[in-house]
Amino acid sequence: MKILVLGFSVTVENNGFVEQARARLSGPDAPVLVKTGMGGMQPYHGRYLFPSIIERHQPDAIVLDIATPAFRNFSTSQAPYKASLHSVLRTCRDQGIRLALLDLPRNDVDYADDWVTRYNAKVCARLGLPHHIVPLTDGLLRDEVHPTSEGQAIYADVLLDLMGQAALVPELPPEMIENLPWFDAVAVDDIAPPELPREHIDRGDLAVELVELAAGQTVEIDLGEPVKVCGLTSRMGPRTGTLELRMGGSTLRQASYDQFCYYNRVGAALFGGQNASAAKVCETLRITQLPDLPDVALRKGEADTGPRLGGLGHLFIETDAPRCARPGRRNTPMKVLVFGFSVTAETGGYVERCATICETELPGVEVVKVAIGGLQPDHARHLLEDVVATHAPDAIIMEVATAVYRLRPRSSAQIADHTAGMEAVFALCRERGMHCGILDLPLDGICDDDDWMAETDAGFSKRYNVPFHREPLNNALLRDNVHPNEEGKDHYARVLFELVEKVVRTRPDFAAMTAERSFGAYPVQTLDIPNGTFRQFSRAGFVTPMLELPEGRPIGINLPELVTVTGLIMLMGPKSGTLRLMVGDKVDKMYCYDRHCYYERVGGKPLTPRLASRIAVMQTPDLPPDDLLKGEKDLGPRSGGITHVLFERVSD
Q: Matching Gene3D superfamilies, A to Z (predicted)?
């Protein structure tokens, strides 16, 4: 179970109460405790950031610390705070996330007459949610709100007790949400020109990529559709100053400097105050870093009078419905590629049905597929780089659990092999900035208590923030041991749709990953093959030239570099049979026929890994002994084919 502590500056503190609570958790069944704190912000800023934070962590439960910021001291209305709380309630209800409220004290609040804790208590009582108010006692705080070491220990005790009580949010009363907009934050990094420099800031696990603007520099931002722009996050520091925004036919100046700008941090502002009264509806806007020096005295240190250097983090927006695709991409749908095997390959199958659902329920997303029936994950991992280069998806969902590879016995070597393949996919996602998801569809014959693949995939999900779904076996939805019937296709389509929704909203975190192995595949048409002849092969979105191998004709294939050759993608069909290969100075035979060869497909076959820069291959005349499941066997001359040479890169 993953629990997110979502709060503000008290939650931000290094080695604070969250870390103390985490240190006391142990054992294989202990929950994973994470946090995100928004130091220096108020709940009416946080409501715009909540969606992306929750999407990033994908928690099972949230402990919400929302009452510690100083907003009570300058609020003119209770409405902004209530809208912020209601937005979290709505998100938790919609996503099935458990929730508990933790009200930590301030020393400048009269708790005998505090509307915030009173409202929190009223809401929690009405919805049946746990709510804990920590009373203010001597020695608890070292300033207005931050705890002493004794206070941190007390907060940790309360957190450990409260997080186990978190409850599902029921249907919300209409008055809480009927006029509540959808709050969101557009990451400027996602839509600003790539040539602009970036700075990464991570404080309290609120990671922000700031797009830098030098004095006098302007960036134009295209949001893809008209939206209400309400505020922003920006760098606040010694060299910041004033940003000028031109949007919706007006010009607005926003200060990104205050008395605390003797160090760099991320600050937030709403245009026109807590209710964003100066918000504008626009599709494009221009933001300029003005060169003016701020006229604000610092609390300590000397002011930097050098050229200004600003940084943009987010644009705060409000919409009438949740956004389903990344901002700036509405005219070009976000492309989600489902990569899989025979279950995914079926024409008119669950992927196509999911794509139809997306047309009406997720119109900013295009779902496509590449599927290679009969292949195994240890072959397919070599092809991903070429598939991604061809289709250029924004996200990839790996459907690899329906292959018989999953039936291999559990062993450390097997888990290491699967890990190497999946982490090679994740490395590709990291390199290309793609989102990622894992879909484990059922395969009859798997023991739920010993499903090493699903267990390993769940670990990837937790480790790298990759959405994961394991669908349980229901034989009523299958027509054989793995392929769905019509009802099953409809069910899988809805399962995939729900995963797609999560994938497009969830940015994976591969920062800590080190992929130890690198896999690749040479498409045959890119290789030096004297006198080679080719034809086109196409099936289930996998389209590629195929080197023809007539019976008895030796063909040499020159590779561009010395690599470890590990296998081939080759033709399986009515005329295929046995290939004779020489890799380096060793001879191998590869059998390319089975009882399903009444039609053409490609298959993957391993070779004993060998270093080579050249291979030779010949189609033998041997007739395969296998009987076909249906149709008459072709007894004529054998004719094979190869589409890719699989390899593993040699480490330096």
A: SGNH hydrolase
